Amino acid sequence: MKVSIIGAGYVGVVLAAGLAELGHEITLVDIDNKKVEMINNKEAPIYEKGLQELLEKHVPTQIKATTDLKTAISNTELTFVCVGTPSRKEGLIHLEQVKGACLEIAITLLRKQAKHYMVLKSTVLPGTSEECIKIIEDVSRKKFPKDFSFAMNPEFLREGNAVHDFFNQDRIVIGSSDAEIVEKLKELYQDIKAPVLETNFKEAEMIKYTNNAFLATKISFINEIGNICKKLGIDTNVVAKGIGMDWRIGPHFLRSGIGFGGSCFPKDVSALIFRATETGYSPKILRAVFEVNEAQPKKVIELLDKKHNSLAGKNIAILGLAFKADTDDVRESPALQIIKELILEQANLHVYDPVAEEPVKKLFPTLNYAESAQEAIDNAEIVLLLTEWQEFTQLNYGDKLVIDGKNIFDSERVHLRPKNYEGVCW
Ligand code: UGA
After folding, report:
1. Which parts of 296-399 fold into alpha helices (H)?
2. Rounded to the nearest whole angstrom, what is the distance from the C-alpha of residue 263 to the centroid of ligand 1?
3. In which band, very low, low, confident or very high, does the pLDDT at 412 lie, cut at 50, 70 and 90?
4. 233-423: what fold?
5. Cβ of 121 less than 6 Å from ligand 1
6. I need a surface site. Which of 25, 45, 168, 270 has the fewest CB within 10 A?
7. What mean pLDDT is reported for the chain?
8. What is the average pLDDT across 362-381?
9. CB of 421 closer than 6 angstroms to any ligand 1 atom
10. How large is the angle between the packed helices 334-344 and 298-307, nearest 10 degrees?
């Protein structure tokens, strides 16, 4: 199938690579010239396992990148919208990019005779798909579903594992009131072995938020239990293992630590709180999820303060900046909050991350950026582990105090723990 994808962020690029591997012909559109050039030069614009290989295989035969949105829409049958929906602190999400894409599609449809299929993948609050349809109808003077079709098809890809997740989906959610686009999408994804759940627009939009909110709730729940366990001298990991063996609970997303970060959980939980509040309902659990998460990075500082009267002038190694391993994304990373607190306490920071240093250098240009994790350790008296990079289990920590915020030395690696080791919740 000939498919255009608007937005070459991690969702759009991974979708392009995945669909090309399934045999489809992809035009990837972005306003950023540099990104477009990189993709056409077979270079992955983000660090994502397996992506580079797929781009090398499918550019330019099955994937072409361009800034020319109108031509891309005209020459394809189906368009995915994968643009960003950035949010403000209070939870309001910005739909300018989504609405802008709808407008461009609508303008192109003024001249296109054949029926066009549009699929929204960006995370949007319930009601947005219907708003998009209205924009397209008003501008293109065409009617849904007779002249163009529309579906909401949320993504559940994890950064760092997005390529793997694309080919191994638990389910494919397709929200639409038009059976024709549902069939189109089933055909597009036919080689992915996953059950298809057909819903209406709002249900599909809400499934995405509820999925992320539930996972975030699991993490804040185990972090709250972890905070209690720490006070009682109990290892939370053993408790998590024990409850995870109950099939009704399951073992995943029960890793306690410094809290969740990234571009999704914090933004989606706050957007849901914001939307619920607008309707007159005050969500109690979601607020608590957020509150526990905001406080969790401070547990590291509390542990440090307990051991040292003052951190002023202390040499502290920060190992890990990304919000989780296998990504160079530092958005909402708990490591950044911890760095800010330590700067306020006038500590001397030696920072290292294998791939995520560049964006942090822009935020904190005066920190000491080490060439290697070992160099950061050697220059410090205290080490903080803030991203679960595998390589951090293989270092020589000597007898320096090591505070693990990410459970790097978990059950199978307990024997590798440094001599002077302390976990945030264990
Ligand atoms: C999340 C969801 O897992 C994806 O299904 C979803 O598609 C994506 O958001 C999105 O909405 O686009 P992602 O943010 O990439 O994916 O990362 P996760 O692997 O879910 O981790 C999120 C945060 O939770 C990380 O900071 C991670 O370290 C933390 N986490 C995760 C824990 O603290 N404990 C755990 O047990 C698991």
Report:
1. 298-307, 334-344, 357-363, 373-378
2. 9
3. confident
4. Rossmann fold (3.40.50)
5. no
6. 168
7. 96
8. 97
9. no
10. 40
Q: Compute, in angstroms, the gap from residue 9 CA to the centroid of ligand 1.
A: 17
Tokens read off for 108 = 């192109």
State residue 89's pLDDT score: 67
Question: Confidence band (pLDDT; 50, 70, 90) for 90?
Answer: confident
Q: Which CATH architecture has domain 2-199?
A: 3-Layer(aba) Sandwich (3.40)
Pocket test for ligand 1, best of 219, 222, 267, 331 (most atoms within 8 A of CB): 219
Where exactly does CATH 3.40.50.720 map onto the chain? Answer: 2-199, 233-423
Q: Is 155 in the pocket of ligand 1 (CB under 6 A)?
A: yes
* Pocket probe mutation, ligand 1, options 221, 264, 406, max atoms within 8 Å of Cβ: 264
CB 6 within 8 A of CB 79: yes
Q: Is the CB of 333 under 6 A from ligand 1?
A: no
How many helices (H) and strands (E) are present in the chain, helices listed first?
16, 14
Q: Cα separation of 290 and 273, whole Å?
A: 10
Interval between CA 264 and ligand 1 midpoint (Å): 7
Per-residue pLDDT tens for 142-182? Answer: 999 999 999 999 999 999 999 999 999 999 999 999 999 99
SS3 (DSSP) at 384? strand
Confidence band, pLDDT 50/70/90 cuts, at residue 264:
very high
Query: Is 219 touching ligand 1 by the criterion CB < 6 Å?
Result: yes
